[in-house]
Design a protein that fits this description.
Layout: H1 5-8, H2 10-18, H3 68-97, H4 112-132
C-alpha cells in the first residue's frame, strides 16, 4: 500500500487495489468424469465376476452363487490382512507419540506412516462394506 499511496492517494489506493473485479475468484464446479455423470447411477458389481447386479444388497450374481463361500472366505482374509496392517501402523504411531495407551493425535504431514495409516484405514472401511454385502452368516 505504501508504494502506491504517493501515486494514486491513500483512499483510492486502498479501494482500487484491495477491492474490485480483479480480486474476485470465480470457480465453476464441473465433474472430472464428464457431463453424463449427473445422470449416472452407481451400481454394485458381483464380487466374483464383476458383472452388474440387479439388487444392490447382494454380493454375488446368480452365476457365482455356487462359489459364494469361497469368495466370502477370500474377502474375509483380505479384510483380516488389512486390519492387521492397520494395527501395526497404529502401534507404530503410538510408539512415536510415546504412549501405547492413548489415541494417536498425530497430524504430521511429513510422516509417511501417517499417510499409509490413513490409506489403510480407508481400505479397511471399504473392505468392511464389501464383506457386509454378504450378510450375516447362516449356521
Amino acid at each position: 500500500m505504501r508504494v502506491f499511496e504517493p501515486i494514486i492517494g491513500e483512499t483510492r489506493a486502498y479501494s482500487e487495489l484491495l477491492r474490485g473485479k480483479h480480486t474476485l475468484a470465480k470457480t465453476k464446479v464441473t465433474s472430472s468424469i464428464g457431463a453424463l455423470s449427473a445422470f449416472a447411477k452407481k451400481r454394485s458389481t458381483c464380487v466374483g465376476c464383476r458383472s452388474v447386479l440387479q439388487c444392490d444388497d447382494e454380493a454375488v450374481c446368480s452365476h457365482c452363487r455356487s462359489r459364494e463361500s469361497e469368495l466370502y472366505q477370500k474377502e474375509i482374509g483380505h479384510l483380516n490382512a488389512l486390519e492387521e496392517k492397520f494395527a501395526r501402523l497404529w502401534t507404530q504411531c503410538q510408539r512415536c507419540q510415546g504412549s501405547l495407551h492413548q489415541d494417536v493425535l498425530c497430524t504430521s504431514r511429513d510422516c509417511p506412516i501417517f499417510y499409509m495409516r490413513k490409506k489403510v484405514q480407508k481400505d479397511v472401511e471399504d473392505q468392511d462394506k464389501l464383506v457386509a454385502r454378504f450378510g450375516l452368516p447362516c449356521w
